[in-house]
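hey so u asked for the seq, here:
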Amino acid sequence: MVFEQFLEDLAIGRTHVTHANLMPFSGLASSDSKFIRDAWANIEPTRRAQIMVMMMVMAEDNVDLDFTSIFKMALKDDNPDIRSKAVGGLWECEERGLISVFIRLLRSDSSGQVRSAAAQGLGRFAVLAEAQELLPSDRDRIREALLEAVNLESEPLEVKRRAIEALGPFSDPEIKDLIQWAYLNPEPVLTESAIYAMGHNADPMWIPIIVKELGSSVPAMRYEAACASARFGEESIVPHLIPLLGDDDLEVALSVIRALGVIGGSVAQKSLVGCLEDEDETISEAAQRALDILDGESDVVFFHRNGTS
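ran it, structure tokens below
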């Protein structure tokens, strides 16, 4: 098979990883991936990780590309970095069978990095569960596994925070109490994760906190608050977002632009038009994309995080 030959050449340094030679791996059936598993194992871990990252970027840039079979195969890789990247590569896959896989990884993988990624992967299914697009038993399994990770004393903080974020879509009082606890926690990363969870929880009770944190002195908090604002979609938040268009932190400014594009309204639109003349091309291009969303010429995209704030 062409796939096996490429991987064998890669293992002995006869070829390089390029977008062109990864294209044939798109759309593989799960049965096909069995034929390349042995060749894959012979490639050095840094190269395998490179392939994972390139496939993720390619799939994000081109919706017609589908590397699901490769990502599933890589879930069993002996390198934890590659396993965690494989989970991230499956972030758009809604196959119900992944629920059990991610729960198993969350509960038993030896790597905290992988358990953290698995928690994030379950967050995708938590959204589906709360929208009643999964069985009630699936909802219960997801919720139970994530809460278990939060309450496990031996679990690293990074895993706990990602589990809290993943629990955000659930609307029951226990989860809201957990989000409130995380927000008031002295650990800054838990506070950031609480803001993220508030955005996914989408209860109007969180709006005053979101508005408050838009004025935080911590860039990561402003970023999370801006992202959460987009998910609430409340025009009342717009006046609090506009001052951040000139934020010193580029990621904050870009998150504000995206939020204004999602929320819409005349005030948001006027502010975005003003950004079109910004000297920073990144800002002006982001503003144009946001205006396209307002005009209905582009789909709303909520950006996926790969283990970073």
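DSSP finds 18 helices and no strands in the chain. The CA atoms of residues 91 and 121 lie 6 Å apart.
lmk if thats what u needed
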